[in-house]
Amino acid sequence: MKNFAELVRTLDSTNKTTLKVNALSEYFKRASDQDRVWTIAILSHRRPPRPVNTTLLRTWASELANIPLWLFEESYHIVGDLAETIALILPTNQNTSEKSLTQFLNEMLALKKESDDVKKKYVTENWSILNYYERFVFTKLITGGFRIGVSQKLMTRALSLATAVDEDVLAYKLMGKWDPSTISFEDLVLKEKASDFISKPYPFYLAYGLEGPVFNLGNIEDWSFEHKWDGIRSQTIIRDNELFIWSRGEELVTDKYPEFHVFKDEIPNGTVLDGEILPYPNNAIGTFQDLQTRIGRKTVSKALLEKTPVVLKVYDILEWKGKDLRQHSFLERRIILEDLITRLNTAHLPLQLSETVVCESWEAVAQERDRAREMHSEGLMIKRKDSKYLVGRKKGDWWKWKTDPFTIDAVLTYAMRGHGRRSNLFTDYTFGLWDENDTLVTFAKAYSGLTDAEFRKVDAWIKRNTLERFGPVRSVTPELVFEIAFEGIAPSSRHKSGYATRFPRILRWRQDKKIEDANKLEDLELLMRS
């Protein structure tokens, strides 16, 4: 544990990628095999289930620190991180633990079924004997919220340096479903077994947002264009007469889309398709809000299947007849894909081709992008015809050119403190629009888009204009107007306003506007229909 805590301390103290990679690589060389497996799991978001809820942790920490709970809560809101708050507020300790990371995690797994008294004894005893960074890491593991500024890609690079296993091969091996409690480092990283690859997807290739004018991309003949669909990115795999569907978040979601089970009877073995799962109510592409009714459901009822059917909109083929096609050009892969779709009876399958859009000028490309909302897409994908299918986000060959966001002017109504370096500032805002009774109704929350100087200025204003406090939330005098941008809008019975917005963020502070100039709820409906 002390080695892992020291690793976290090193990673937490630098923003330099080289130093992080070197620290991780050295750790992977020295750590035990099982600690290495658990470290890989933690840094690739395969954390053990949380055995203790945070309410109990806050209560126990305040008791151990001998301070009232309200003071702990105020400290927590200032610090912005529960594990850091606990590590700071408890009495200092210079001791260390000789137990391994694996021992601690196995104890935490066993703790989940124990009584609250047993959990309290275990947690407080460990808090009392661990030093600051060990205590911080221990609490992070208990809560499951482990974010230390290390991406899975960076971790994979370090693991490659430590093991001499190719980075792309490692990325492939670490995808999919595996249990850090049962798998060995040999099986996970070092050993290559054909059976391991039956269900495994390929690492996804991701596009960059377009930078600068589209015509800067050069010769239009070098590029292919299609719409950017707003659904769930996925890979559909048919191997050994079995079907596997993976989301981009590396979650196996086969059972959530029973409509796709027919693919294994129609699509040849050794095929991997890259595409987007889209809602398809009434034989037309729906909204992402429609799709959310199916996301997270453990079981999909017959009624839900009828209300929100889905289709797979495919735009790439990564494997054909068992052969990896990623080193082939995009144009070559598209020819194979289009030939496959032509030979399938797609009229009876929930499968559609993402059609290529033919544009003979950059002006025509811009015009097609303007049709995005009409097409129920987010904009355009622009892919170099000779591009290979790479791993992760690479700049130069794949670009996404999204439509301009919806915008609306709203009034600041509530505020909370931010997190991390903004934990001492009120930077998390709630906004309202006018209803037909001239009452401000909450419609969106946002916490990004202003400069640091603007955040400080708004923070000072909030502290002077607080009306009421509800725990960490403050209601404020309705006076400030902000332009809010968002990607999509849909009706929602779960939101007070009656609408749900997608990816809301602050575009600018409208200091030139009074609250009477802010938009009304009916304006949201007009935007939705536009």
Automatic annotation (TrEMBL):
BP terms from Gene Ontology: cell division; DNA recombination; DNA repair; DNA replication
EC number: 6.5.1.1
A GO MF label: DNA binding
InterPro entries on file: ATP-dep_DNA_ligase, ATP_dep_DNA_lig_pp_1105_fam, DNA_ligase_ATP-dep_C, DNA_ligase_ATP-dep_cent, DNA_ligase_ATP-dep_N, DNA_ligase_N_sf, NA-bd_OB-fold
PROSITE patterns: DNA_LIGASE_A3
Coiled-coil boundaries: none
Highest taxon, organism lineage: Bacteria
Catalysed reaction, written as an equation: ATP + (deoxyribonucleotide)n-3'-hydroxyl + 5'-phospho-(deoxyribonucleotide)m = (deoxyribonucleotide)n+m + AMP + diphosphate
Gene3D superfamilies associated with the record: DNA ligase, ATP-dependent, N-terminal domain, DNA ligase/mRNA capping enzyme, Nucleic acid-binding proteins
Protein name: DNA ligase (ATP)
The entry's keywords: ATP-binding, Cell cycle, Cell division, DNA damage, DNA recombination, DNA repair, DNA replication, Ligase, Metal-binding, Nucleotide-binding
ATP-dependent DNA ligase family profile domain segment(s): 303-435
One Pfam family, short name: DNA_ligase_A_C
Organism: Formosa algae
Main enzyme class: ligase
